[in-house]
Amino acid sequence: MSSENSSKTVRLRRNVTLSLFGIGLIFMALSLGAEFLGLDITPGFGMVQMFQLLLGITAITAALFLHINALRQETVRSLQADIGVRLAATGLVFAYVTGLSDLFRIGTHVEPQFERPFVGPLQLGGLALAVLVIVVGLALYYTSRGRRQKSSMEFIVNGNGNDH
What we know:
Distance between the termini: 48 Å
Oligomer: single chain
Number of strands: 0
Structural class: mainly alpha
Number of helices: 6
């Protein structure tokens, strides 16, 4: 009975992970390709598209964390993995703040000078930095010890991985 519950849990986790990844890809594709698909309401990259892009990034990040977590079941999370999770979460928060900065009225394209908010070079740079932080967090989480005794990043402390 426990193996049957276990297989159901594994299938449910896999389905949720694939669904989140698919939803994220669809949201990102629709937001980035709205102009080409004729779905854009206003010229340029608007706030609805930005919010949809951010939801897509969030869904893909969650799906990747679920997948990596499924690879290393039954293990205690290492400090490196904890840092990776927190770093990626910080990247997501930074992505939302930079992406929606004009709506929060902390951006550079706010009224009365600008009729409507739009994505500028500072926001694009902030989003790129946020995605980079998310990728670094995912990489730290993926390379953490998992089922191994030592982290695969041990070479940072001990040179080429040999104990001194």
